[in-house]
Write a structure and sequence with these properties.
The protein has 142 residues and is an alpha/beta fold. It has one domain: Collagenase (Catalytic Domain), CATH 3.40.390.30. Helix content is 49%, strand content 20%. The chain is built from five helices and four strands; from the N terminus they run βαβαββααα. A four-stranded mixed β-sheet has the order 1-2-4-3, with helices on both faces. Helix 3 packs across helix 4. The protein starts with a strand and ends with a helix.
Length: 142
């Protein structure tokens, strides 16, 4: 049976997530807690250059970012999407915030799925709610 949560890496980046099943179970628990159903979720790990090209091409943003989330669902309560994560940004952000890489990676993984659950982060208030939800989600990891 094919997993509904997949992890991919775009060359030339060499990266793999450790304990994929633990991460799948954790992400699934976030989705279930938010009362959504999971159809398919793809995490694509890449470098800054790859994600910058996506940011320019699809979002017309000429900036570096740690994550871009594409919602492919047609149903409001269904999670189906692609989440691109720059491992370069996660590494730098972890250093800047004095966090372990794994903690920052969890924050970004949760951030993407929370976007698919309807949480936004454009305003100061939305960003604070998102940060609180990220902290809550990280606390679910076992």
């Amino acid at each position: 049976m094919e997993e509904k949560i997949q992890f991919f890496t775009e060359a030339p980046l060499e990266f793999s997530i450790k304990n994929e099943s633990d991460y799948r179970n954790w992400i699934q628990s976030i989705i279930e807690n938010e009362k959504f159903n999971l159809e398919q979720l793809n995490y694509i790990f890449c470098n800054d250059e790859y994600l910058h090209k996506i940011n320019v091409e699809y979002l017309d943003h000429d900036t570096l970012t740690d994550i871009i989330t594409f919602d492919n669902s047609e149903d409001k309560q269904v999670i189906e999407g692609d989440i691109f994560i720059s491992i370069d940004r996660v590494t730098d952000n972890a250093k800047d915030r004095n966090l372990l890489f794994d903690e920052e990676l969890k924050r970004v993984l949760a951030h993407g799925v929370l976007h698919l659950c309807g949480f936004k982060d454009k305003s100061v208030e939305e960003a604070q709610i998102m940060r609180n939800k990220e902290d809550w989600a990280i606390g679910l990891f076992q």
